[in-house]
Design goal:
It contains three helices and five strands. It is an alpha+beta fold. Bound molecules: adenosine monophosphate and zinc ion. Adenosine monophosphate (AMP) binds next to loops. This is Histidine triad nucleotide-binding protein.
Length: 117
């Protein structure tokens, strides 16, 4: 069924507590934890508890949960005292997506370049 946990998905395993993570915030619909390979002084991932491959697929199926995810990203940034931050949804392997469970990267605590690499 759409949105169901996938046995072979790393982030579904993190939500289930089968893989450890450093949790920052949790709501009924979202989970936020520190990236294991941080690319900035603050690097937190926010994921929906339901499984969808990427942000656009999530948004098409679950607009309310997508809104929850974006709000939570803002809450994490506020708790981490980030005045500026970058919110990234890598979509597709060509763009650097390696985990195919929708997730927002919150990156902050250093200067950022534009355009990104
Ligand atoms: P992406 O490349 O956009 O799919 O992002 C996946 C992110 O998950 C990468 O930044 C990884 O460093 C991160 N990651 C992979 N395994 C773990 C883990 N066990 N705990 C926390 N973050 C992870
Ligand atoms: Zn998943």
């Amino acid at each position: 069924m759409a949105g169901e946990a996938q046995a072979d998905c790393l982030f579904c395993k993190i939500i289930a507590g089968e893989v450890p993570a450093t949790v920052v915030r949790e709501t009924d619909t979202t989970y936020a934890f520190r990236d294991i390979n941080p690319q900035a002084p603050t690097h937190v991932l926010v994921i929906p508890k339901v499984h969808y491959a990427d942000a656009a697929t999530l948004a098409a199926a679950e607009p309310q949960i997508t809104a929850d995810l974006l709000r939570e990203a803002g809450e994490v940034a506020a708790e981490e005292k980030l005045e500026s931050y970058r919110l990234v949804f890598n979509t597709g392997s060509g763009a650097g997506q390696t985990v195919f469970h929708a997730h927002a990267h919150i990156l902050g605590g250093r200067g950022m370049q534009w355009p990104p690499g």
